[in-house]
Write a structure and sequence with these properties.
Helices cover 64% and strands 0% of the residues. The chain contains 9 helices and no strands. The radius of gyration is 35 Å and the shape is elongated.
Length: 251
């Protein structure tokens, strides 16, 4: 089986094409919500405020420790869930994911969004959003007196009392940002599973079909290359015999 046969054997049809179409619509809604939540949080609408609120209750480190480190010329280490990196990263991946969704829709309409391509794209998106989930739910162990071994307090404790009323709205926005990140990662995993299923489900039938086509082409080629001696060639009729040319009359 040549390269062309191997490429032709790769399934190009979706197992559930209507499901893919519906998933595009669901992804569009979640992507818009994610882009709005990430954009609102940019650059630092409530991150430092929530960090300070957790410090006031003894749930995590103190953001003023960064100023103390600068003043004493010590290495500055911002805990990952409270860093600017998380906010910027979320905005970037939301824009990239929305652009990829636009490309996916165009390719799907043009019938060139194959399951193999979908598998590669969504595997990358799963990895990208898994990094975001890890960053948002990372621990804060920078203060030994107030360690935060798990996710930030707004994820584990909620946004009710004793959180200040003025920060409860920001707290819910932070929880919403984390929720849409998890939802998108789960949605991309659904894409990935359907893509793998579409690749594996018809694979056996496709291989058998292409093997039959390959065998038929090989037989036709073998027939065309048989020695010419093996073919039955009718000799020309002998003059003077039935069906042949008559001998001329001698004077």
């Amino acid at each position: 089986m040549g390269i062309k046969d191997c490429f032709a054997a790769i399934p190009k049809q979706w197992k559930f094409p209507k499901v893919i179409f519906y998933l595009f619509g669901i992804e569009l809604l979640i992507e818009i919500a994610a882009l709005a939540l990430y954009g609102i949080a940019q650059p630092d609408l409530y991150r430092t405020r929530l960090w300070q609120e957790g410090s006031d209750h003894g749930w995590n480190s103190d953001p003023n420790s960064i100023l103390y480190a600068y003043a004493n010329y010590r290495p500055v280490h911002t805990p990952l869930p409270w860093s600017q990196f998380v906010t910027d990263y979320n905005v970037i991946i939301s824009v990239v994911a929305l652009f990829i969704l636009l490309c996916k829709g165009i390719m799907y309409i043009c019938h060139i969004f194959y399951p193999l391509l979908s598998t590669i794209i969504h595997a990358a998106l799963i990895a990208i959003y898994a990094v975001s989930i890890h960053a948002q739910a990372a621990p804060d162990m920078s203060d030994p007196d107030h360690p935060q071994p798990g996710a930030p307090w707004y994820i584990t404790r909620g946004c009710g009392a004793p959180v200040k009323a003025s920060l409860q709205g920001y707290c819910k926005q932070a929880v919403g940002s984390f929720a849409v990140t998890v939802m998108l990662c789960a949605l991309f995993f659904v894409y990935f599973v359907i893509s793998i299923w579409s690749l594996l489900a018809p694979a056996a039938g496709s291989v058998i079909r292409h093997r039959k086509l390959s065998t038929a082409s090989e037989d036709a080629e073998a027939q065309s290359q048989r020695p010419w001696e093996m073919t039955q060639v009718q000799p020309p009729p002998t003059p003077g015999t039935t069906g042949g040319l008559k001998s001329p009359m001698t004077p």
